[in-house]
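dumping this here so i dont lose it
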C-alpha cells in the first residue's frame, strides 16, 4: 500500500520539542505523496492556548489547499488541574499539573465549542498521555488509562482517539528502552474485556482510532515483540470495523517519516490506504 494521509503532525508552535515549519511540511508532503493531512499542536490546559493561536497564524500564512486542515491534539487532563491553572497557582504549567491531584478526579479536556470555532479547528485528536494521580503499579495504570481512553471515546468534541496504550517516562531502562511494565513486556496484561468496552464505545459514539507511527509502530524505545503484539491489536480493531486513521506524530524539522516501513506493517494486518479515515476537503 501507499500511505496518502497523515492526521497527527506537530509544528514548531507546539509546546514540546516539535520544530517543523509549515512551509517545510507542505513541500515534504508534496514530495511524499501525502495528499490529505493536518497539523495538530498540543493543548494540555488553557495555558497552551497562545501556542494554538500561533499555530493558526502560521497555517493561514501559507498557501491554502482544501486538503490541508487545521486540527489540534488535546490531552486528557483533570478538571482539578484546569481549575488550578485558571487560578494562577502554578508559574509555568506547560504540561498541566502532573502530581498532587485527587485520585479519580473528574476528567476533562481544555477545549470548548467556542474555542473550536474561534480557532477554526476542523478536527480534534484526544490523547491519554500520563497517569492521573494513581500509583505507578501495573493494574492501577491500566485501569486509569482505560478510564481516560473511555472518556475520550465518548467525548462529543473528540474526533480521533490518539495512540491507545502509548507509554513513556516511568519504567524506562538505563539504555532508553521500555521492556517491562505497564504492558510493554506483555500486552496481554490488558484484559480483553477492556478492549471490548473501548471498541463498543468507539463504534457507538462514531469515533476514529489512530494508528500512530512515531509514537507506537516506529518507536525506537519499544522492542519489536511489543510492536508485533500491538499490530495484532490494530488488526483486531480493523476486523471489528473500527474506523482507523493514520498519524505520523511528527516532531522533527524535516518531516522525515518512514512511511514505507509502516505501509509494510499495515499490509501485514490487512489495512489498506483506502480503508483509512480522511477528512473531506474544505469547500
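and the seq i came up w/
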Amino acid at each position: 500500500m501507499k500511505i496518502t494521509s497523515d492526521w497527527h503532525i506537530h509544528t514548531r508552535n507546539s509546546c514540546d520539542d516539535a520544530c517543523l515549519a509549515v512551509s517545510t511540511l507542505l513541500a515534504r508532503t508534496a514530495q511524499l505523496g501525502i495528499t490529505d493531512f493536518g497539523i495538530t499542536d498540543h493543548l494540555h490546559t488553557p495555558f497552551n492556548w497562545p501556542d494554538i493561536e500561533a499555530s493558526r497564524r502560521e497555517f493561514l500564512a501559507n498557501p491554502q489547499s482544501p486538503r490541508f486542515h487545521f486540527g489540534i491534539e488535546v490531552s486528557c487532563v483533570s478538571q482539578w488541574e484546569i481549575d488550578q491553572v485558571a487560578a494562577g497557582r502554578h508559574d509555568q504549567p506547560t504540561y498541566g499539573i502532573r502530581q498532587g491531584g485527587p485520585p479519580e478526579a473528574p476528567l476533562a479536556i481544555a477545549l470548548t465549542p467556542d474555542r473550536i470555532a474561534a480557532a477554526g479547528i476542523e478536527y480534534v485528536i484526544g490523547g491519554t498521555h500520563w497517569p492521573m494521580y494513581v500509583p505507578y503499579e501495573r493494574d492501577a495504570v491500566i485501569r486509569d488509562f482505560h478510564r481516560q481512553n473511555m472518556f475520550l471515546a465518548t467525548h462529543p468534541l473528540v474526533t480521533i482517539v490518539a495512540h491507545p496504550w502509548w507509554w513513556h517516562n516511568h519504567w524506562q531502562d538505563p539504555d532508553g528502552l521500555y521492556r517491562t511494565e505497564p504492558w510493554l513486556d506483555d500486552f496481554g496484561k490488558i484484559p480483553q474485556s477492556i478492549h471490548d468496552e473501548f471498541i463498543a464505545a468507539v463504534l457507538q459514539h462514531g469515533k476514529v482510532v489512530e494508528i500512530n507511527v512515531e509514537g507506537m509502530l516506529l518507536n525506537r524505545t519499544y522492542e519489536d515483540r511489543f510492536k508485533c503484539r500491538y499490530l495484532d491489536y490494530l488488526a483486531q480493531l480493523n476486523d471489528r470495523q473500527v474506523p482507523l486513521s493514520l498519524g505520523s506524530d511528527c516532531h522533527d524539522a524535516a518531516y522525515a517519516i518512514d512511511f514505507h516501513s509502516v505501509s509494510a506493517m499495515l499490509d501485514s494486518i490487512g489495512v489498506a490506504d483506502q480503508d483509512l479515515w480522511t477528512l473531506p476537503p474544505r469547500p
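The longest helix spans residues 138-153.
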